[in-house]
Design brief:
CATH class: Alpha Beta
Mean pLDDT: 91
CATH topology: FAD/NAD(P)-binding domain
Number of helices: 15
Strand content: 25-35%
Catalytic activity: (S)-malate + a quinone = a quinol + oxaloacetate
InterPro entries: FAD/NAD-bd_sf, MQO
Protein name: Probable malate:quinone oxidoreductase
Distance between the termini: 54 Å
Largest sheet: 10 strands, mixed
CATH architecture: 3-Layer(bba) Sandwich
Structural class: alpha+beta
EC number: 1.1.5.4
Shape: globular
Family: Belongs to the MQO family.
């Protein structure tokens, strides 16, 4: 087995998380060696691939699951504010890179695309109005618009209203500052920058073993998936950004912090339209109300997507069940992830989320006609001839221990790291990619607390609001938002 020198930083997985962390670490410690392992033949081919996600640039502008209704009828905006703050960190980070020509600043990965929420029925209209009132009291959402006027909504998004019953109560909100993000293009740009500055990228290489050695380094065993050549190296710090496979690699590492975690995999499918005549009539990402029992990532939405400069429309996602943790994973991923320490949490989640399982089975078995009828609820005059199915990415939601229930299903992302700071991994899904910069700053704080003081000037240069919140100073927030929008070529 071939061996080589000790690497300072090893990143497992060639997606947006590894790309972001590698870029941050290279900025603050440019003398560190970095190696990236990716089991596929290219980077950004799983969840970061633009056709495997909605590219929403999650900022809680349109996603209703971030603004639940309290028992007294008031709207809780806590999660919405948190997600928006995290997305603003990503924007600041990308803008800094664009100013220094580290990522393309000519709209190749990010485009201004209004974020809308559209609802039907009296009760949902009332909820959306209360949500809008609650959000617009906060400086990060003060520009959001609301309307119950069909003519106004038609002006915002014509496909939603043509052919709709004019007596049906409808309402919509619109945030002009929304974006569409091609996380594939962004990931490739970041990794190209790292490789150009000396990082090593090993494609078609699967990490098969992780073991902590007595000197505190990690022994990493890998194999080339084509030639089957095996290799061994050592690393001072390891980040596992392998999407759904992160859990099994953290389990291989044997860190106690990973005990009790499990994953609940959910597959997906889109309907896609490339007809220029249809695409030209819709420039927005429009989210609706989730079906009863649907997981948050399955909230229906009709999206403008811009990939490699070409606009398309996506509708969905239609969720389903699959035991794979990655789109190109293994049918044994789920059963092989079961351990004595996570069996009880996984069984508890299965028991408490039976309605979710039923929903996913129904979605999986829906006919093409039934799926298309869901699109027509958004776009009444949709023509089946204009749309075709497209596989979406695989999502693996976090299952974790809970003192009362035994286990709970967590929607979001979670950093799992070793106590000594030499290894960290990321579990979970949405809104991950959009908040990658904030999440990777958390990894840095946990893993390198003794270096933060020395790194702070560089981090503040990359992210002006580092260590604080954009909304702490509304006037300064406006200035920073306008500056980042200009650097990224966006509508402020």
């Amino acid at each position: 087995m071939a061996q080589d020198e000790t690497i300072d930083v090893v990143l497992i997985g060639g997606g947006i998380m590894s790309a972001t962390l590698g870029t941050l670490l290279h900025a603050v410690q440019p003398d560190w060696s970095i190696r990236i392992y990716e089991r596929l033949g290219g980077v950004a081919e799983e969840s970061s691939n633009p056709w495997n996600n909605a590219g929403t640039g999650h900022a809680a502008l349109c996603e209703l699951n971030y603004t639940p209704e309290r028992p007294d009828g008031s709207i809780d905006i806590t999660s919405a504010v948190k997600v928006n703050e995290q997305f603003q960190i990503s924007r600041e980070f990308w803008a800094s890179l664009a100013r220094h020509a580290k990522v393309p600043s000519d709209a190749l990965f990010i485009n201004s695309t209004p974020h809308m929420t559209f609802v039907r029925g009296k009760d949902h209209v009332d909820y959306l109005r209360r949500r809008w009132e609650a959000l617009t009291d906060h400086p990060l959402f003060s520009d959001m618009e609301f309307s119950e006027d069909p003519k106004v909504i038609h002006d915002w998004a014509p496909l939603l209203m043509v052919g709709r019953d004019r007596l049906e109560p409808v309402a919509a909100t619109r945030a002009e500052a929304g974006t569409d993000v091609d996380f594939g293009a962004l990931t490739r740009a970041l990794i190209d920058g790292l490789v150009g500055d000396g990082a090593e990228l090993r494609l078609n290489t699967e990490v098969t073993g992780l073991k902590r050695l007595e000197d505190g380094t990690w022994r990493i065993r890998s194999r080339h998936v084509v030639g089957m050549d095996k290799h061994e190296t050592r690393a001072r710090f390891v980040f596992v950004g392998a999407g759904g496979w992160a859990l099994k690699l953290l389990q291989k590492a044997g860190i106690p912090e990973a005990r009790g975690y499990g994953l609940f995999p959910i597959s997906g499918q889109w309907l896609r339209c490339d007809d220029p005549a249809v695409v030209a009539k819709h420039r927005a990402k429009v989210y609706g109300k989730a079906s009863l029992g649907a997981p948050p990532m399955s909230v229906p939405h009709l999206d403008t997507r811009i990939v490699e400069g070409k606009a398309s429309l996506l509708f969905g996602p239609y969720a389903g069940l699959s035991p794979r943790f990655l789109k190109r994973g293994n049918l044994l991923d789920l059963p092989l992830s079961v351990r004595p320490h996570n069996l009880i949490p996984m069984l508890a989640v299965a028991k408490d989320n039976f309605a979710l399982v039923q929903y996913l089975v129904r979605e999986l078995t829906k006919s093409r006609k039934a799926k298309f009828s869901s699109l027509q609820e958004f776009y009444p005059e949709a023509d089946p001839a204009d749309w075709y199915p497209l596989g979406a990415g695989q999502r693996a939601q976090v299952i974790k221990k809970d003192a009362k229930k035994g286990g709970v299903l967590q929607f979001g992302t979670e950093v799992v790291g070793g106590a000594d700071g030499t290894i960290a991994g990321l579990l979970g899904a949405s809104p991950g990619a959009s908040t990658a910069a904030a999440i990777m700053l958390d990894v840095i704080r946990r893993s390198f607390p003794e270096r933060l003081g020395a790194w702070e000037p560089q981090l503040r240069e990359l992210i002006p609001t580092y260590g604080g919140l954009l909304s702490d100073d509304p006037r300064n927030a406006r200035r920073i938002q306008a500056s980042t929008a200009e650097a990224l070529g966006l509508t402020a």
